[in-house]
Design a protein that fits this description.
Blueprint (H helix, E strand, L loop, with lengths): L11 E8 L7 H12 L5 E8 L3 E2 L2 E10 L3 H17 L3 E12 L3 E9 L2 H18 L2 E7 L5
Parallel strand pairs: 1-5
Antiparallel strand pairs: 2-6, 3-4, 4-5, 4-7, 5-6
Length: 149
Amino acid sequence: MNPPPLLPPDSSIRVAITDGPLGAISDAILGAASDASARGMVGARLVFEGIVRRDEGGKSLAALAYETYDPMAEQTLAQLAADIVNQFRLISLAVEHSRGRVPVGGCSLRVEIQSGHRGEGLDAMREFIQRLKQDVPIWKSPVWEGNGE
């Protein structure tokens, strides 16, 4: 097992993999946000939510099914988050990802980033999502409408 990642002082990371669609923004995500905001460190807060859409290449989806390789997925997410926090000198990064079935309209990914300035936050969000899709052992499969739905 890898040692815990070193983070810049006053930064935080939160990672969660949750069964089914994600609900409202959790206290785990908002906790780090309110702490840093209260200390006057935050200049930008970005929240990205990935939503399952109906149309996929002209066909209708009923849902997406996400499969994870546990505990490697959570460990890889945490390491990726630490890498991004260090690279972009972020204040915090929190990520939640679904496991299992997420219906159309449901949220399957949520990323919250806090940074001192908007530019580094925007760049960090793009890089984090691209690397998550490439490096983290979470796979999605379509559940097509009309297949017993």
